[in-house]
Amino acid sequence: MMKHKLTLGFSPCPNDTFIFDAMVNGRIDLGDIELEVVLADVEELNRMALEGKLDVTKISYNAFAHVHYRYQLLNAGSALGNNCGPLLISKKLLSEEELKTASIAIPGENTTANFLMSFAYPEAQNKQEFLFSEIESAVLDGKVDSGVIIHENRFTFQDKGLVKIADLGEFWEQKTGFPIPLGGIAVHRRLKPGIRRKFDSLLRESVQYAFDHPDASKEYVTCHAQ
After folding, report:
1. 35 and 9 in a common domain
2. Annotation marks residue 151 as catalytic
3. Which of the following is catalytic: 151, 188, 213, 224?
4. Residue 226 predicted with pLDDT over 70
5. Count of structural domains, the chain
6. Are residues 66 and 34 in the same domain?
7. Is the pLDDT of residue 153 over 90?
């Protein structure tokens, strides 16, 4: 059987490792699909997608808007959230007026987090990019005045003495009435339609396996959690 080798990019965050565990660790039959896994921060994945480097990739919805002509969004694997969006945090509360000039750490220009920050505070333009896992430290060390945090950091910032200025996801939901558009899985349009459909089906199977066997992915998720 001739194998179709695909590059697959996703982040080490638990959401991603949970849904891809069965696919990349031999728990489901991939048939003629062979995967080369690229683990990277979501903003790095966004940049690779903007350059068309990966066959299949996790991508922020904000970035997907810029590459929809090159990538097709799959039916499986998307993350739409309620009450789980990015938070704007700092060492002290800052007013909307102060935020106009404050330095703000973001997890990447192309991330949904940055989009939601701009949606809530369009005049706050003094932004600096950091790896998402380094944003809390950047605020604590005084490198920036505030930061936009995502993933597990949403649940740990208060333990470090930081305060929430705004829940950017909540602001989006209140203003639009829609769930938070976090990210999805996209496949490059250079692949034949049959391969794209096959991968979508495999991803759906991998997600279902993860929910049916929640303990199976625990080791894979834990070893990549940041």
Report:
1. yes
2. yes
3. 151
4. no
5. 2
6. yes
7. no
User: For residue 72, what is the domain's CATH number?
Assistant: 3.40.190.10
Residue ranges making up the domain that contains 26: 4-80+181-224
Global pTM reads 0.88
Statement: residue 1 has pLDDT above 70: no
Give tens-digit pLDDT for 41-76: 999 999 999 999 999 999 999 999 999 999 999 999
Cβ–Cβ < 8 Å for 71, 45? no
Domain match, 70 and 94 both: no
The pLDDT tens digits for 4-35 are 999 999 999 899 999 999 999 999 999 999 99
Percent of the residues in the chain that have a pLDDT greater than 90, as a whole number: 87
- Check whether residue 73 and residue 18 sit in a common domain: yes
Mean pLDDT value across the chain: 94
- Nearest by Cα to 102 from 130, 134, 125: 125
Measure Cα distances from 68 to 38, 56, 178, 179 in Å.
21, 13, 21, 20
What single letter denotes the amino acid at residue 45? L
> What is d(CA 129, CA 108) in angstroms, rounded to the nearest whole number?
5
Residues 136 and 226: their CA atoms lie apart, in Å, by 13
